[in-house]
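Quality-control log, excerpt.
Job 1 of 2 completed; input and output follow.
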Amino acid sequence: MILVNRVRRFSAVVAASAVLAVAAPAFAQDISDAHLKAAREAVAAIRATDMYDGILPQAAAVLKAEMIQKNPDLQDVITQTVDDTTLKLAGRRADLEKESALAYARVFSVEDLNAIAAFYNSAAGKKLLQDGVIVTREVGKAADIWQRGVARDLAEQAATTLEELIKAKGLVPPPAPETATDGDAPSAN
């Protein structure tokens, strides 16, 4: 009974999500078929939705684990039922592709989308998609090293310039921070 109630609640959440997804903005109708086609090609070329491929399998794995934990004696039935249902829902992946294409179509012109698709379908674009993560990681490392170097040089050069200005103008420099302990205090001569 607990299992059935949990499945019903899960189904209600899924149904509510579906209703919200169907209630797409009205301005999506203003996008021509050619514009949407170009957007779909760009989305496919840049693999914009690939990162979401694991959502359904992960949701299925979590659901199976929860249901099996509550009813370990039904493990085989739960596994088969969730797997079958997952396969039935796999076709809804096209909804994500459509919504992604609409998002791109709202921002980019047909010409822009065609250029994006052409680039990412080229050898250079494919190489960028394949190796871009490696380059981004290396650029991040270089930026970290650069940041530390710039901060160090800024502090050193600003301190040197400040000392020179203080000496040239006869100003009293700010007291240096004390590093001595009470026992090592300098004597007043």
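Job 2 of 2 completed; input and output follow.
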Amino acid sequence: MNPYTAIMLFVIIWWVVIFAVLPWGARPPENPEPGHAPSAPAKPMLIRKAVITTVISAVIWGVLFYLITNDILVFREF
């Protein structure tokens, strides 16, 4: 796997994981202010979710990197 492919694989995994992590802990405010969406989360915790996403993505990427570089998962045969 060349470096470009490795980076692009990580980016794709990261974006898939962020959409799975975003709803975690999202609670709408009890009394939304006028002009705000009533479904918007009160505390979105985006930095925390970005860190969690990066950790989960790194683990998934590491497993896939191992499988691809050791020819356990081969895409050229398809």
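Post-run check on job 2. Helices lie at 3-21, 46-69.
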